[in-house]
Amino acid sequence: MKGEQQQDHVRSNEERPFKYNAGDRAIGVEMSQAASVASAAAEFIDEGERQKGMGPLNRAYFKRPGERPAFLVLRDGCEDRPLFREDAGTAPVGPCLIRSEEWLNTPELAELYDSWLTGEDEVQTERTLQRIYYRLRAASLALLESADGAWTAVTLLCTPELAALPARLAVLQDAQLEALFSAVAESQRLGSDCRVDLLAPYPASAPEFAVMREFIEDVAEQTLGHAYAAACRIGALIAPGAHYAAGEIARIADFLVLDGAACGRAPEASSAEGFARAAGEMLAAVRRVKPAAVVLAAGAPAAAALADLYAIGMSGIFCSAGQRTEALLRAACLTWMARQDHNVDPAAGGWL
């Protein structure tokens, strides 16, 4: 059965575009019409505001014939966001990356997690886990009601303390997924339109990712039903230096994120140059087996290496609030310059 399901993942993966039905243009789509780099940056930043009154159409982050897909600058983390979705004023052009370990670091969860991790009494540990579940459910509901709730990509919990305790890690991840999907069910019951994608953290191989994917889909199906499980996009968070496995993982993953926050696993990739090199190796491995794969980067090194990531054809980056303004401006400049170069006819010596 598991083998059949994994084969189904491979067969159906090409039918699962990383797309969102809201708005009608990818970010920065009119850069070539900007009068200057400054106005290009303004259009890049304000594009969402100008889409508010437009009807929903398919948006897919795949290369169409004759054009380069948009390079996305997306949000990484929970900080500096409007608390409620009606305050956001923009339609999402891509998901916001939520690292669920941030939830464990909050005061209300940190003490519970430590108690559960060190507890020896089985009954008390189970009660503590139940309290963790309710806290995670509340955090998930708050996320879905926020500006990032329209589309978010959440990582599965993966803490250093549980790296050597796979059974306990699976228990905690199960509680997290049930809390998250229960929050999705409540949000849908109240009429809210939300999309939650999942990221399996740092799989070492395609078989390991397949097991994690099946686990996520099983919990989604048990909580929300088969329809949601089939529609849920499941990607992989890849550590720099793990490009040797990225190609095979890409066969059954809906999208990939190269995580600069995991550069401790590959210290040579912590600089912008080292990260760009790791990204190029990963992208080459992925494109060999899946040319249309969506491959993004995250973390501080990704923002620092933005120009190189754009040049090699990455799909975009996730960056923190402190890096976002500069990253938007740099991406706008690169998009504007690329489109100007594309519009020059060398034979005619002028613009097309």
Number of beta-strand segments: 10
Gyration radius, rounded: 21 Å
The CATH topology assignment is: TIM Barrel
Q: Class in CATH? A: Alpha Beta
In percent, how helical is the residue content? 40-55%
Low-confidence stretches: 1-45, 47-66, 344-352
Report mean pLDDT, rounded to a whole number: 77
> Architecture in CATH?
Alpha-Beta Barrel
Domains, number: 1
Shape: globular
> What's the end-to-end separation, in Å?
56 Å
The largest beta-sheet arranges its strands as 1-8-7-6-5-4-3-2
Structural class: alpha/beta
The ordered string of helix (H) and strand (E) elements is: HHEEHHHEHEHHEHEHEHHEHEE
**Number of continuous helical runs:** 13
Protein name: PEP-utilising enzyme C-terminal domain-containing protein
InterPro entries: Pyrv/PenolPyrv_kinase-like_dom, Pyrv_kinase-like_dom_sf
Task: Please describe what this structure looks like.
- This is PEP-utilising enzyme C-terminal domain-containing protein.
- InterPro entries: Pyrv/PenolPyrv_kinase-like_dom, Pyrv_kinase-like_dom_sf.
- It comes from Paenibacillus borealis.
- There is one protein chain.
- It is globular and about 65 Å long.
- Mean pLDDT is 77; it is low at 1-45, 47-66 and 344-352.
- The protein has 13 helices and 10 strands.
- It is of the alpha/beta class.
- The protein has a single domain (2-99, 198-351), classed as TIM Barrel, CATH 3.20.20.
Descriptive labels:
352 residues; 8-stranded parallel beta sheet; two-stranded antiparallel sheet; Pyrv/PenolPyrv_kinase-like_dom; TIM Barrel; single chain; alpha/beta; 10 strands; disordered C terminus; PEP-utilising enzyme C-terminal domain-containing protein; 49% helix; Pyrv_kinase-like_dom_sf
